[in-house]
Design brief:
Elements: H1 2-18, E1 21-36, E2 45-58, E3 61-77, E4 82-97, E5 105-121, E6 135-147, E7 150-159, E8 170-184
Antiparallel strand pairs: 1-2, 1-8, 2-3, 3-4, 4-5, 5-6, 6-7, 7-8
Length: 185
């Protein structure tokens, strides 16, 4: 009897693996970003992001790692007239939940890890440009609609670590994007 139960459990697990949906795609879109912190204010700035994603789904749950180039920053930093533009390579690792059968809508939640690859500012603040941190950790929450290989979504990214070692400000942004599946289910 134990062997039969074990065989049934193993068959159930293998059937789930076989039915797992795997897809790979490309995406890109608009960033609306600002820098914020306890004593820091900035106006919104726009940038863009683009990159690749993979999605692994099984029974309404999934994992979606991504690799993106993303432009963020803020305008009129602390009312000084200084504009700060930052460029990151980001790697969100998102848990995906699809409550509607067929996967028409995905809810996304997870961490994002970023590596600074470029910074510019309209100089007005001294020593600020030399103090940007290379790494950043953020949290991501979003929603995405999927239709026949095309997806579109919006997400909010909230920086947990300070972008600069001299001033405690963090990246905060909304991402609006469109993507398409290159291959897979």
């Amino acid at each position: 009897m134990k062997k039969i139960l074990l065989l049934c459990a193993l068959s159930f697990c293998l059937a789930g693996v076989v039915q797992a949906q795997i897809s790979v795609g490309a995406k890109g879109g608009l960033n609306v970003a600002k820098l914020g912190g306890p004593d820091v204010v900035s106006d919104n700035t726009t940038g863009w992001h683009a990159g690749l994603y993979a999605k692994f789904k099984l029974l309404g749950l999934g994992l979606q790692p991504e690799l993106l180039y993303s432009q963020v920053g803020g305008e009129n930093f602390n009312n000084s007239g200084t504009d700060i533009d930052l460029s990151y390579i980001t790697a969100p690792i998102l848990l995906v939940f699809s409550p509607i059968p067929g996967g028409f809508v995905d809810f996304q939640l997870g961490p994002q890890f970023g590596y600074l690859v470029g910074d510019q500012e309209n100089l007005g603040l001294t020593n600020l440009e030399d103090n940007f941190r290379n790494g950043e950790v953020s949290g991501v929450v979003g929603v995405q609609a999927n239709l026949r290989g095309i997806n579109a979504g919006v997400r909010y990214v909230h920086g947990f670590t300070a972008a600069n070692s001299e001033a405690d400000f963090k990246n905060r942004l909304f991402q609006f994007y469109v993507g398409f599946r290159l291959f897979g289910n």
